[in-house]
Every structure is written in structure tokens, then in C-alpha cells.
Write a structure and sequence with these properties.
single chain; 102 residues; alpha+beta; four-stranded mixed β-sheet
């Protein structure tokens, strides 16, 4: 899976990029059809948020994690990864359930 990490009002450091790639790598274990993932990290007035789009065959899965003031970017990445993981599993269950005979 090809992961693109960009930032708005925040510099993307190497440890931050590696953390995003590590967290989104676990999604690939559940969903091997994923082709690309675009992650955008935001910072506005000490409030962090992260959003991602995962493109797979025939679908795009979008998730957004916004935090309160005082939370850090790593927490937002964890929340984003959890949301994406739940959405990918739900999408996978729907896809398998449609084609199951009987």
C-alpha cells in the first residue's frame, strides 16, 4: 500500500511520518485490496486533527479524527487508525456477506 503523508500548518518530521506508516500498516493486514492512502495532518490554534482517504478497488474510505485542545498529534493518529480499522472491517464484512451463497 502506498501511503502519502502531508501536513497543513505543521511540519511532517521523519518520526511522525514513520508513526503514521506504522499505524496504517495494520489496516493492510485486514484489507489487502487497499491501493493508496492519503493522510493529511492539520494544526489550527493548538488543536490537532488528522484525516485519511483509503482508495481500494471500487471504494474510498474516509475518516476524520479531531481532538480537543491539549491533545497531541500522536493521539489523533491513534484515533484515526482506530476509526479506519473499524470502517475497513465493516466494509470487508459487507463485501463478503453479499457474495456468500445460501
Amino acid at each position: 500500500m502506498h501511503i502519502t503523508v502531508t501536513g497543513q500548518q505543521i511540519d511532517i518530521t521523519t518520526p511522525l511520518r514513520d508513526y503514521v506508516i506504522d499505524k496504517l500498516g495494520r489496516i493492510q493486514r485486514h484489507f489487502d485490496q487497499a491501493v493508496t492512502a492519503d493522510v493529511v495532518l492539520h494544526m489550527e490554534k493548538k488543536r490537532f486533527s488528522a484525516e485519511a482517504n483509503i482508495r481500494a478497488r471500487g471504494t474510498v474510505i474516509h475518516a476524520l479524527a479531531e481532538g480537543a485542545e491539549g491533545e497531541d498529534m500522536y493521539t489523533m493518529i491513534d484515533l484515526l487508525a482506530d476509526k479506519l480499522d473499524r470502517q475497513v472491517l465493516r466494509h470487508k464484512e459487507k463485501a463478503v456477506g453479499q457474495y456468500r451463497p445460501g
